[in-house]
Amino acid sequence: MASSEGSREAGQMWGQGGSISGKPYFIVQYHDLVAGAPLRSSPPPLRHQPRSDASRETTRACDLVAFAHVLSAARHPRFGPGQDYMFVREFVAFLASVLLKCCKESDSSDMETILGGLASLSDELSWFKKEAAKWSVDLAGISPLSSNMEYCRFLQSLDDPEISYTVAITTFWIIETVYQDSFAFCIEEGNKTPAELLGTCQRWGSPEFKQYCQSLQRIADRCLANAPPDVVKSAEEAFLRVLKLEIGFWDMSSSLS
């Protein structure tokens, strides 16, 4: 349980700052929402209930986003590989820009972590090609849908030299963490994940990928702890944008039903 000072800070609304044990409240609340939250249509109860309309919208996003990718794949297995493949191609460019910012603003240990993620994307692209072939998806004939394009435009915007390394690495962390959370949920005991998707879930729900996400969070935590308030606010705005874009990806898939 947080101290009285921490509780007062935690009682602040999203977008107004605050921290618990030195971590920005938006990061703490994301983990509160995902940890142990069963799949449901309404938001889970919060340890510290936010009060604004924007907070409720973000709470809904947090509740859904951790499961969006796998649910999308389960309902539309022929659709997912092509759109995800195009997204990962754009993600390579985004991560290269994060690495460049790291070279200018951070230390070598961060660089090694980011390089590890960049190197893994080659394997991801190859894997999506194999999945597309398995589901008879012609990647050359796939066009990005609007939600995919919106997400990619957001990633492109982070290449701006005015965007700080802190904002970029926080964005990288939450994108990867959402992916890991979703697939880890689907391989938990008792969840009825289709047998043909278990390999996919085990790929990104693995303890190794979780450890990588935790490494990214440690970097983001350190950067945010040393950042001025305006940069922390920008990082939170990017965090919220990612959640909304993830919901857009989910809605894009659901619209094909």
What features would you describe in this structure?
The chain is mainly α and 257 residues long. The protein is 69% helix and 2% strand. It is built from eleven helices and two strands. The chain has helices at 4-10, 25-34, 53-65, 68-75, 80-105, 108-134, 146-157, 165-186, 198-204, 207-225, 229-254; strands at residues 19-20, 23-24. A hairpin with a 2-residue loop joins strand 1 (19-20) and strand 2 (23-24). Helix 5 (80-105) runs antiparallel to helix 6 and helix 5 packs antiparallel against helix 8 (165-186). The model is unreliable at 1-16, 36-58 and 63-79 (pLDDT under 50).
Task: Report the sheet-strand fraction.
Answer: under 5%
What's the CATH first level? Mainly Alpha
State the distance separating the first and last CA atoms. 43 Å
Going across the biggest sheet, name each strand in turn: 1-2
Number of strands: 2
Low-pLDDT segments? 1-16, 36-58, 63-79
Helix-strand pattern: HEEHHHHHHHHHH
Please name the defining characteristics of this protein.
257 residues; mainly alpha; Heme Oxygenase, Chain A; two-stranded antiparallel sheet; globular; Haem_Oase-like_multi-hlx; Thiamine_Salvage_TenA; Thiaminase-2/PQQC
In short:
With 257 residues, the chain is mostly helical. The protein contains 11 helices and 2 strands, in the order αββαααααααααα.
Write the layout of secondary structure elements.
Blueprint: H1 4-10, E1 19-20, E2 23-24, H2 25-34, H3 53-65, H4 68-75, H5 80-105, H6 108-134, H7 146-157, H8 165-186, H9 198-204, H10 207-225, H11 229-254
Antiparallel strand pairs: 1-2
Helix pairs in contact: 3-11, 4-11, 5-6, 5-7, 5-8, 6-10, 7-11, 8-9, 8-10, 8-11
Domain Thiaminase-2/PQQC: 83-253
Organism: Triticum urartu (Red wild einkorn)
InterPro entries: Haem_Oase-like_multi-hlx (IPR016084), Thiaminase-2/PQQC (IPR004305), Thiamine_Salvage_TenA (IPR050967)
